[in-house]
Amino acid sequence: MQLLLGSRPSQQPLSDAAVMITLRKGQIEFFRHLYRRHYAAVQAYASQCVRGPLHAQEVTSDVFAHLLQQMVSGESLIERRHPGCLRPQLLGKVRTAAINRWHRERDTLSPDFRAWVAAGSRWPWGEDGQLAVAYERLPATTQCLLWHSVVERDDPAFTARITGLDHHEVPAACDQAMTALRQVRADLYLERLERPDCRDVIEWLTQRPEADSAEGWGHLRACPACAAVYKDLSQLDEQLEAQLPVRLLGWWTGQRYLRAKAAIPVPLGDPPFLARLLERGRADASAEPSRACRATAATRGSRGSRGRSRAASLQSPRHSRAAVAVAGFLVGVGAGVLLLTACDPRLGAHVQPPPTSGPSSAPDDPPSQQATPPPALSARFPVQVNAYTSQQGTSADSDPGARALGSSSVLRYDRVDFSTVRDTLAVARLAGPSGGGARLELRLDSPARPPLAQISPSADGSVNDISVPITPVEGVHRVYVTAHCPTTTDRCVELFAFGAAPSLSGALLALHRP
């Protein structure tokens, strides 16, 4: 199992959910964990949809590249189906990508999948849909445990990595998850029953389906409906494995998929699109210090040339004495001319007085100096919140690097330079109230303009780097930072830093293609 994550520290590995949060903060190198954990499954499911390993690999690469694009662009997966488990989402993306090939490359589809699509891609509605409803009512972690332990048949160590649980906690957690599913499944039956005796029997079956109860067994023999419920609950494990993926995905090959997944080795390296993206990021990071070093070297070189010139002049005393002699001769000639002019009035008559048409300045007036503007502040994230030019209605937070903003608060930053970044993401490191409802707004040049970006903090109240897409900005601008709070009296946004950042979505579209 070490190959699934490559080299990793000794501490508990990050769960899928934690890795996705880290990706949203810009640490795209963590994507390799998701890639290695789910590569075999995605490739195996793709091989059930398309013909040949080359087409399956192409679909697999497209699915993972699109997932990374979603992560780095800030697109949320919370509103999608199965939000607590990444594996069904990835398999669903494979199915959708294969269906899209129906209109372009029908010959690349596998025969069985092509027949399924030609028949209308029909879901097997003949199966009992209440099982999928019960599954989707469970908490996210419970869904993920059941999918990987029952449907995918993954070993506890691998399931622990995906869910973030300790390896030794997985078996007990899976048992609890099955109990929770059985309870929800029974609740769905109870919603349709009106007889009190049936309700009592179903509750008994839910708590202890294998328990011995003469009254319960007697009711089951006399009530066909409750007997069907008993059969359903006693065979829930088998039904979950066989029916749940069919209900969630539509296309499912069962044992063929599991055998294909077991035969696919996990890649040790990064996918090509991720490797090229990381290499580009390292090149961009090394280019900035190089430019700074070249500028510093040029400054030192100019200082050194001046020092060498001065040293050369000090080492040539003969040239210095000649220059002093010439200067003394010129001064003597000038003094003689002035003396002759003062002694001969005729010469003085030809001397023109200074013009008086314009205003004269006193000889001791200082030369006019143009006011030097303050240096521009780079728009590249992070712009520290305390670098503001002026503020209104904000307050210093308990954290010295943060400020608290309310609905009437304004932070103004003069001369923010966007000309060297051309970024397409606005990023803010901030926290908001639990439950959400707050947002941060960035405006250019005037607080009355429409916002350049609106950034909502995490609803759990934690500090996170949140990014949203923006139109690239050019030039130097004044930036106004305001907040919108659920209530008008309290300060609801805790801001640490903001700025612009490069978007990786456009680069991904180009990099993952050959």
What is the strand content?
A: 5-15%
Number of helices: 19
Cα shape: globular
The major pleated sheet works out as: 6 strands, mixed
Q: pLDDT below 50 for ≥5 consecutive residues: which ranges?
A: 1-10, 305-327, 329-371, 505-514
Compute the CA-based radius of gyration: 37 Å
The end-to-end distance, rounded to whole angstroms, is 31 Å
The quaternary organization reads as single chain
How many β-strand stretches?
12
Q: Give the mean pLDDT.
A: 75
Q: Which structural category fits the helices and strands?
A: alpha+beta
Tell me the helix content: 40-55%
Topology:
Layout: H1 2-5, H2 16-24, H3 31-49, H4 53-72, H5 86-100, H6 111-118, H7 130-136, H8 140-151, H9 156-163, H10 170-190, H11 196-207, H12 214-222, H13 224-234, H14 236-249, H15 255-263, H16 272-314, H17 317-343, H18 345-349, E1 377-378, E2 383-384, E3 390-392, E4 395-396, E5 403-406, E6 410-417, E7 425-431, E8 439-444, E9 453-455, E10 464-469, E11 476-484, E12 491-501, H19 505-511
Parallel strand pairs: 1-6
Antiparallel strand pairs: 2-12, 3-6, 4-5, 5-12, 6-11, 7-10, 7-12, 8-9, 8-11
Helix pairs in contact: 3-4, 3-5, 3-15, 4-5, 7-10, 8-9, 8-10, 10-11, 11-13, 12-13
Describe the model.
- Strands 1, 3, 6, 8, 9 and 11 form a 6-stranded mixed beta sheet that branches. Strands 2, 4, 5, 7, 10 and 12 form a 6-stranded antiparallel beta sheet that branches.
- It is globular, with a radius of gyration of 37 Å.
- The relative contact order is 0.09.
- 51% of the residues lie in helices and 12% in strands.
- The chain has helices at 2-5, 16-24, 31-49, 53-72, 86-100, 111-118, 130-136, 140-151, 156-163, 170-190, 196-207, 214-222, 224-234, 236-249, 255-263, 272-314, 317-343, 345-349, 505-511, and strands spanning 377-378, 383-384, 390-392, 395-396, 403-406, 410-417, 425-431, 439-444, 453-455, 464-469, 476-484, 491-501.
- Helix 7 (130-136) packs across helix 10 (170-190), helix 8 runs antiparallel to helix 9 (156-163) and helix 10 packs antiparallel against helix 11.
- The protein is α+β, with helices and mostly antiparallel strands.
- It is built from 19 helices and 12 strands.
- Strand 8 (439-444) and strand 9 (453-455) form a beta hairpin.
